[in-house]
Amino acid sequence: MVSKTGKAKMGPLTTTQLSKLLDSSTKPKEKAKIQRAINKRPPVAVPTVEPVTA
């Protein structure tokens, strides 16, 4: 997705895609944007397994 100024938006990318971009990026300003986009995402909920005592 592109903004009205022609720059790419970070919205529709998944966390793994953003992480890969962060690793491959060389520009500090771009890295800051990507890191901010990752931090905005809610943390992935890990399902907890509760033992059932019967």
What would you say this structure looks like, in words?
- There is one protein chain.
- By secondary structure, the chain is mainly alpha-helical.
- It has helices at residues 15-24, 28-40.
- It has a domain at 11-39.
- The protein has two helices and no strands.
- Helix 1 packs antiparallel against helix 2 (28-40).
- The chain starts with 14 loop residues before the first helix and ends in a 14-residue tail after the last helix.
- The mean pLDDT is 79.
- The radius of gyration is 17 Å and the shape is elongated.
Residue share in β-strands = under 5%
The backbone outline, from C-alpha atoms, is: elongated
Query: Unreliable runs, pLDDT <50, ≥5 residues?
Result: none
> How many DSSP helices?
2
- What would the average pLDDT be, to the nearest integer? 79
The ordered H/E elements are HH
Q: What proportion of the residues is helical, as a percent range?
A: 40-55%
Quote the distance from N terminus to C terminus.
52 Å
Major sheet attributes:
none
Structural class designation: mainly alpha
Rg is: 17 Å
Q: What's the count of strands?
A: 0
